[in-house]
Design brief:
The complex is a heterodimer of chains A (about 300) and B (about 280). By secondary structure, chain A is mainly α. In chain A, about 75% of the residues lie in helices and about 0% in strands. In chain A, a hairpin with a 6-residue loop joins strand 1 and strand 2. The N terminus of chain A is likely disordered. Chain B is built from 13 helices and two strands. The C terminus of chain B is likely disordered. Chain B has a two-stranded antiparallel ribbon with strand order 1-2. Chain B is globular, with a radius of gyration of 24 Å. The two termini of chain B are about 30 Å apart. With about 280 residues, chain B is mostly helical. Classes of the chains: A mainly alpha (about 300), B mainly alpha (about 280). At the A-B interface, helix 1, helix 3, helix 4, helix 5 and helix 6 of A face helix 1, helix 3, helix 4, helix 5 and helix 7 of B. Chain B: This is ABC transporter permease subunit. Chain B: InterPro entries: MetI-like, MetI-like_sf. Chain B: Keywords: Cell inner membrane, Cell membrane, Membrane, Transmembrane, Transmembrane helix, Transport. Chain B: It comes from Streptomyces erythrochromogenes.
């Protein structure tokens, strides 16, 4: 790749007086940021504005006249749309809680392990797996546990009523990228638990259980909660995995939006997809509003 | 510090946890490979892999994905490198603004973003058909090279690219570097190109790799806007050629992982302290 040209480069004469160079450098510095801001204003701002505008615009099916109102939003909280929203929240919450617990266990196993190489290997693998999702993940699981998957055939799972294309099937698949994400999130916090704290607790006669209940877990709580909402957010926004795997047999808000964008909606409800998108943004915003302060708080112990 | 309590001995629970995790994470991969080579009734063969190249649509879709990646990486770096360097050098007041702007895409799930993009694209035929802007709308949706995807991917890559570049810049003292170069008689562009950029090699690579992985695997945007890069192609053929689609997924996984592993190895060797705050 050729090195990108830096736009910060208004050539300043080397001999110019310091004050003038300073001012000019500041101005050219600001100029270097302008393209980025302009780009986001267009490529991100326009779609966001269009989504907001559309979410509040209702079109009369008979006359085609558009008017502003809450019609789409209320529609997005009813019937099949509500089912999909609730389904998404349920799926994301279940997999996030499970992944938090399992991730904590795995991270603790790795952190307390005497093997240094194991720790490195698990953390690197987690970094890779946490970025794994979408279509290949869905196909890997279809090949493993789908209707004609390898394990399904070998273990005769079909007779036991196993079905990958279900709520719990999706939870199982989502854990594949959520657990590594939790391991990455919680490992620094576990590293921050000082040995002295455990020793102090033991010297004061605390049992193993009391140490976890009164010392370790309270210290870990902000990181755990922060990780939980982060996992919830990524499960909530996931679309490709579910789309490639289950089609629409599990009600999910992302699948509903995709359906509506592709034109499978009643006349007059075209903009409900945008209202649903707005609902998603609100949930994601809420997640970030919880996550950021928690992350800052947990940083206090890790310093 | 004296270690009074003995290091925890290998506990059975730890072995159990690690073994379960290893099973859970390795079995789907192994099973995918088995699925592609073991044809029921025909025994083991590598047909699914050898036929990939001949399958219709494979090369065009892969090429499209690679072209999109290259364009996205170029756009992201051209936008982000000058901005982040300037934030370090002179425009530090703008830092909070840029930070917020670059985190915004995280708050909007990809599918919601696509819904917005789709709405904007519909303005073309609906409202702008008489204006010159209409031609722009047509041009960005050219199926041979959909620029609109490049724009969307660049937006999605902003948070990752920003973090990678910011971490890289934090590790070097840009101001001193530039001042030293200037004292030696280099012009500002020269100082930036020859002193700062080479020191950012790791961060540039990391930002590029992350963007590449994102674009190669991206499905949502492309599918809903009706384009057919790699990920969409795999899903399209999965109905008729299940084994082939899994084989291609396995391959694309291996390639992506190799890239990310290289990146992880590279990152940890260069700056061990900067890896912790990346996530």
């Amino acid at each position: 790749m050729t090195p990108p040209r830096t736009a910060a480069a208004a050539p300043a004469a080397p001999a110019a007086p310091a004050a003038r160079t300073g001012r000019r450098a500041r101005r050219s510095g600001a100029l270097a940021v302008v393209p980025l801001l302009l780009f986001t204003a267009i490529a991100f701002g326009l779609p966001a504005a269009a989504m907001l505008d559309g979410a509040f615009t209702t079109r009369d099916p008979a006359t085609g006249a558009a008017s502003y109102g809450l019609g789409n939003l209320t529609a997005s909280w009813q019937g099949a749309y509500l089912t999909a929203l609730v389904g998404s929240v349920k799926l994301s919450a279940t997999s996030a809680v499970l992944a938090t617990l399992l991730g904590l266990l795995l991270a603790q196993a790795v952190v307390t392990s005497p093997l240094r190489a194991l720790r490195e290997a698990v953390l690197t693998a987690s970094g890779v797996l946490a970025n794994f999702g979408g279509v290949p993940l869905a196909f890997a699981f279809v090949a493993t546990l789908g209707n004609s998957g390898v394990l399904t055939r070998e273990l005769g799972l079909a007779d036991t009523g196993w079905n990958l294309y279900s709520f719990w099937g999706l939870v199982l698949v989502y854990l594949y990228f959520l657990v590594p994400l939790m391991v990455l999130t919680i490992t620094p916090a576990l590293d921050g638990l000082r040995t002295q704290w455990r020793e102090a607790a033991q010297n004061n006669g605390a049992t193993h259980r009391q140490y976890w209940q009164h010392v370790a877990l309270p210290v870990l709580a902000p990181s755990l909660l922060g990780g939980l909402v982060l996992l919830f957010g990524s499960a909530f926004a996931a679309y490709a995995t579910a789309a490639a795997m289950v089609g629409s047999s599990v009600p999910l808000v992302t699948l509903q939006i995709a359906d509506a964008i592709s034109g499978n909606v009643l006349i007059g409800q075209e903009n409900v997809a945008l209202a649903l998108s707005l609902d998603m943004v609100l949930v994601a915003g809420l997640v970030m509003a919880v996550y950021l302060p928690l992350q800052r708080r947990s940083a206090r112990w890790l310093a | 510090m004296a270690r009074l309590t003995a290091r925890p001995t290998p506990a059975p629970w730890r072995a159990l946890v690690l073994a379960t995790a290893a099973l859970y994470f390795l079995v789907p991969l192994a099973a995918s490979v088995v699925f592609t080579v073991d044809v029921p009734g025909q025994g083991v063969n590598l047909d699914a892999y050898t036929r990939i190249l001949d399958t219709e649509g494979f090369l065009p879709s892969l090429l499209l994905s690679l072209e999109l990646s290259a364009a996205t990486i170029a756009v992201v770096l051209l936008l982000m490198v000058p901005a982040t360097v300037a934030l370090r050098l002179t425009a530090s007041k703008l830092r909070p603004v840029v930070e917020v702007v670059c985190s915004l895409p995280l708050v909007v799930p990809p599918i919601a973003f696509v819904a917005g993009v789709g709405t904007v694209l519909k303005w073309g035929p609906e409202r702008l058909s008489r204006t010159p802007l209409f031609q722009t709308f047509v041009a960005v949706q050219n199926p041979d090279f959909p620029l609109v995807l490049v724009l969307a991917y660049a937006v999605m890559a902003l948070p990752f690219a920003y973090r990678a570049l910011d971490a890289g810049l934090r590790a070097i003292d840009v101001r001193t570097l530039v001042e030293a170069a200037r004292s030696c008689g280099a012009s500002l562009p020269h100082a930036l190109l020859r002193a700062v950029l080479p020191n950012l090699r790791g961060a540039l690579l990391s930002a590029s790799f992350l963007t590449l992985a994102l674009v190669l695997g991206e499905f949502t945007t492309a599918q809903l806007l009706g384009f057919r890069p790699f990920a969409v192609w795999i899903v399209n053929i999965s109905g008729s050629q299940a084994q082939m689609s899994v084989a291609v997924s396995v391959m694309s996984l291996l390639v992506t992982w190799l890239l990310l592993l290289l990146l992880a190895g590279f990152g940890s060797r260069r700056a061990p302290s900067s890896t912790t705050d990346r996530k």
